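Support reply, case 0932

Customer input (verbatim):
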Amino acid sequence: MSTLTRVPLYEPDFAQDPHASYRRMRAQFGPLVPVDLAPGVPATLVVSYEPARRILSDPQRFPADPRRWQSTVPDTCPIRPMMEYRPNALRSAGAEHARYRAANVAALQAVDQHALRDHVEAVAAQTIDAFQATGKADLLSQYAWPIAFQTLSHLLGCPDEVGNRIADGMSKIFDGINASIGNQILAQAAADLVTLRRARPGDDVTSRLIAHGAGLDDAEMSHQLITLYGAGIEPLTNLIANTLLEMLANADFSGNLHAGEASVREALDTVLYRDPPLANFSMSYPPRPADVGGYLLPADQPVVISYAACNNDPDLGTQSLGNRAHLAWGAGPHGCPASSHAYLIAEAAIRHVLDALPEMDLSVRREDLIWRPGPFHRSLTNLPVIFPLV
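Our regenerated output:
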């Protein structure tokens, strides 16, 4: 198919109003849409719910291992670091995937949920103290991001110096700007954390991964950590910020906000349903041409699930998917193993700032907020608020 017929997912116009783009895609192409993830990088975007569920539940025809695809993609491709093969559960298939996933699930399940909530609340209080006296804040850079970063570093037993490098590398990869440099920064920082925790194990996810019976070597350990940080910092930051935006600007929530009656869980579910922080993800790479509902998908070309479009598929009618049926956490064998942790962190962070600053409001109109371009994330550039001084 000609590149002229493909929809670019990297343009600012797409980022500002993706749902209008999804509607146009369905009208022109149906459930499976030819897109470009970056200039000259073709893929198929799945924008309908039922085909997405079938693909996510069929790892034999739609494996997550990208090695054959990436052999055709230059190292300079801005999204290659986001999609390339890594020896971890997200980018592997078969027995290799099962081994990596078992280690990650075991390490995450051992997290003390009560201690995690206490940690989030402590970080939230400290973060708010830093800006409360000013009467204004950017809730993305000054609140959501520090909470996601500090909480994930705490869970992984990662010192701030190493964590800052990991966050810097991950940000470059998500934005697709200086992504190859970001990949190098990320790899070295993750390796440094593995070295540290092999020498000084603790009660943290990294140490539990090292001790797991899967016997992960240093390279495998580094890539588990890269995946955990990638799934943690950016998406969790965006989940917190985007939910706060809903609570401040959506009439369904803002009317009850100042009265303390707004439902944080309901707002979280609205964001996960309507605008999940990873809007387009769950990449797979069919090794042979694959027929999906009469559409033939080419071999060794990415198939990307649009969680945002599928959750809002008009073929679902007016039924609500609810927080168990939407695709924001993925589905099938590659579904997110840390969704309960993300829910807990986001809910605790949002409740704390609403309690601390009950009269805050957006300092700009919602329509004037800017969304970061990129084919994968749904991320604001900032979330400015004002609030009265006490």
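We compared this against your earlier run and they match. Two observations from our side: The mean pLDDT is 90. The chain has one domain: 3-386. Please reopen the case if you see a mismatch on your end.
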